[in-house]
Amino acid sequence: MNYNRALDLIFESYIAVKPLLKGRLDRDVRNPHIILNIARQLDLIPPADKILKVTGSKGKGTVARLCASSLEPFGKVGLVISPEEIDHTDRMRINGQPMSEDRFIACFEKIWAQITIPSAPDYLSPYGLFLLIALQWFKEENVDLFVIETGRGVRFDEGGQIPAHTGVVTSIFFEHGDYLGPTLDDIRADKLSISETCDHLVIGARDTKTPNLAYPHWYDLARQSATEALRAFRGRAIDIIDVPCASFATRQDANRTLMYEGMIARDSADETFLRRLMQDHNGQVHFYLSLPDDKDFDGIMDLLQKTGATISQIILTGERGFLSYEKAKQHQIAYQGDFNDVCALKSGLDLPQTGLIYFIGTQTYLRLIKRAYFT
């Protein structure tokens, strides 16, 4: 088996039932215990007192990464993130190092031999299968401590249902309404249900105590949340060991500046930071926004329009999920193409040669942007 064949099998069950899932909520169609029962049969679930898990609408990946790096002085730390940053092998890491493709294939083959494909409409969730691969690897490598970033939810999410010592809810906004909703109260109830499977609950920080002007405010909130999570997990204060932020970066490129930020809800935006960028770049800011209809497109568009900057839309296509961009299509479209095609993006998107170019959108979009302009 090769790496691409393993990925095909991971997504195969989900893709087969995709038409049956459209428009239905996770609570009606997703069963995390299909995967968790396999994990139990293979004795892959670590002791709860060794696990810290993180959910939330904004900052969960950042908090998980900060917690994992800061725990490294205390042993071998396994980290699970969702989604991937660049490649699926970086969803799972030990002391910051992603899994190799060869090891990924070997671990996948071991668990795949124990799996029976469920009958539709049940399916094997890709997140759950990646989690199994990670847990198999962690077991083989005798990992001491575990940090798990959940998928989009908790109650019907494999990572969310693994018992843990400490659970963290970074923030709650209206996002994934088509899966966790339909209301904000439904989303809140799902995220907060993490308390049912952990001994200690940490609610994310609300106020920035010492703003870092180089980052949007949510990064400082994530550092504060990680500090409290580690205190709960280890029973004492632990120094934060910073790692590169996966949801925000900046780089200088000749006469222009490039930035990207993961942003799917207006509530998570730092308006002061955006206004300062407009001032620093004398109004020469061009936003490239990629948000499907299930995100807070209207809220973020309203915010960006008030800055007076130029805004263009990026529409991603591909076989994963049910991404609708009807709202984006009502505005200026700069590019439409496959979510995984870097060459097509670089040849088809005509970027300005001066000023600030700011990419805003989902993690899938940022993955494409990073590969195109930041690597």
Features:
38% helix, alpha/beta, seven-stranded mixed β-sheet
Major beta sheet, strand line-up: 4-3-2-5-1-6-7
Number of strands: 13
The ordered string of helix (H) and strand (E) elements is: HHHEHEEEHHEEHHEHEEHEHEEHEH
Strand content: 15-25%
Shape: globular
Number of helices: 13
Poorly predicted ranges (pLDDT <50, ≥5 residues)? Answer: none
Largest sheet: 7 strands, mixed
Helicity, as a percent range: 25-40%
Radius of gyration: 20 Å
Average pLDDT number: 94
* Cα separation of the termini: 29 Å
What structural category characterises the helix and strand content?
Answer: alpha/beta
Concise structural overview:
This protein has about 375 residues and is α/β, with parallel strands linked by helices.
